[in-house]
């Protein structure tokens, strides 16, 4: 009887530690993209009550490894079970960081919206890395 209790305890402790180590690693990998040259990609999407979407994107890379950045922002609408790009704009910089101008567009009520921001980083016109970040606005009622 003591052997069964001991075995159950050992199995329970093993399962707890396995769950802790597995879940913390998986969460960390999902929470942060793993880029080599890109430091961050960010942006913002806001929609006014009258239906004007205002958005921008920006990004940065390691300054010693990059001398050109191109950022592309796509304002997307979820319609017919897929994301459709409504508007696209981009900016290129001969530096390690870049930001698009803030743009405003009219959008319709009754759909979900998001930004797709893509950053390309270069060294001497050689593409080193491409990173993408999605920024969700959610449903615009």
Q: How would you concisely characterize the structure shown here?
A:
The chain is of the alpha+beta class and 141 residues long. Helix content is 21%, strand content 56%.
Describe the fold and architecture:
By secondary structure, the chain is α+β, with helices and mostly antiparallel strands. The chain folds into two domains: 1-32; 38-140, Immunoglobulin-like, CATH 2.60.40. The chain is 21% helix and 56% strand. It has one helix at 2-31, and strands spanning 38-47, 52-61, 68-79, 82-93, 97-99, 103-106, 111-123, 126-140. Strands 1, 2, 5 and 6 form a four-stranded antiparallel β-sheet that branches. A four-stranded antiparallel β-sheet has the order 4-3-7-8, with no helix packed on it. The termini are far apart. The model is unreliable at 14-30 (pLDDT under 50). Residues 1-26 form the signal peptide. Keywords: Signal.
What structural class should be given to the helix and strand makeup?
alpha+beta
The rough form would be described as elongated
Mean residue pLDDT: 85
CATH topology of the largest domain: Immunoglobulin-like
What ranges have pLDDT less than 50 throughout 5 or more consecutive residues? 14-30
Instruction: Spell out the CATH superfamily of the largest domain.
Output: Immunoglobulins
Major beta sheet, specifics?
4 strands, antiparallel
Rounded to an integer in angstroms, the radius of gyration calculated over CA atoms is 22 Å
Beta-strand percentage range = over 45%
Keywords: Signal
